Amino acid sequence: MAPLSRSLSSLVKHTGCLWRVGNFRSSQQGLPNHPFRSGWMKKNFRAVSCVGAGVQPLLQQPGAKNGAASVRSSSSEGQDATERLWSLYKETKRQTEVICTSSVDPDTIFANNEMSLRDIEIYGFDYDYTLAFYSSHLHTLIFNIARDILINNHRYPEGLRKYEYIPDFAVRGLHYDVQKALLMKIDAFHYIQLGTVYRGLHPVPDEEVIAMYEGSHVPLEIMSDFYGKSTHGHTMKQFMDIFSLPEMTLLSCVNDFFMRHNIDYEPVHLYKDVKEAIRDVHVKGIMYRAVEADIEKYIWYGEQSHAVLKKLSAHGKKMFLITNSPFDFV
Question: How confident is the model at residue 52 (pLDDT cuts 50, 70, 90)?
Answer without folding.
Answer: very low
